[in-house]
Structures are given as structure tokens and as C-alpha cells.
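Q: Here's a chain of 172 amino acids. Please give me its 3D structure as C-alpha cells.
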Amino acid sequence: MEKQEGPDAPAGRTGGPAVRIDDPWYDALASGWGEPADTDAPAGEEARTAAEAAGSVPPQRPAHSEADVYLEVQRSPAFQEVRRSYRRFVIPAALAFLLWYLAYVVAATVAPGLMARPVVGAVNVAMVAGLGQFLSTFLLTWAYARHARLRRDRAALELRWDTQEMTRGVQR
């Protein structure tokens, strides 16, 4: 996040300095945007036609409302693949983390002797397992962010731009 101040900074709604949020979803250009318009076809038409031919986006047809557009995108194979990829990571990871947490709580309750066993000096098994909870939280967060960046973000961004293109000029 950047806070812009000074005479050249754009003013916010309250007249104060504007705050710019670094958002890769906001800053990225959709395919066909920012390129010179072709005289034969509207800007982005070729990219949209190529995406439709590849099967990533349902073919353009006049929709009656934004709700129709969003339902059409939700039914598209590209959207279903993004959701499938998300579930393939999140469900097993959440179950593994929940089991790890429950094992820690159950062991602390059922086997206090085991948890009190010293590992190094005053550090016992319970302390090591408790610190392991924190470590596994950070590792899971890192793994989720990496998985999203490598496997879902690009496809989700393309879906977002396609949806915006499809809703342009649609009845609200």
C-alpha cells in the first residue's frame, strides 16, 4: 500500500492524500486492453474469439442480465477447473491441519505424562508440539499462497476479465 502525499498526489474523497493499494488483480491488463483498436473489430474481439475457441470461456451470446452472465461463467469449464483446483488443495490441507491440532489437544488431555517428557532442558514434548502448531500454520499459509499463485491466480484473473467484458453493456 502506498500513501501519496504532496502537491502532485491525487486527492481522496475527503480531500486528503490518496491511498493506493497494490493489487495485482486491479493493476493487470486484460487481454486486448490498452492495445490499438482494429478498424474491423472492437478492441479485444480477437482475444475473446481465441479464448472462446480454446474452450476457456463460453461463447459470447447476448445475455439479458448480469445474473445470466455470472451463471454462464459459473457453468464454464474454466471456472469449474479453478474451483476444482482450489478444493483439491484446501480440503486435504484443512483436514490434515485439523487432525494435527486435535491430536495435540487429545495428547495433552489423555497423555499428560508423554507431553511432560523433557526433550532438551526445560523444553518438553508439549512445548515442541505447540511451537509445531505455529510453524505448521505458517507453512500451510505459505503453501496455500504458492499453490494459488502457481495454479489458480492466472486462470481466475482471466475469468474476471472475461466476465467484465461480458457484462459490459448488459442490462443491470
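Q: Can you summarize the key feature?
A: The first helix runs from residue 24 to 27.
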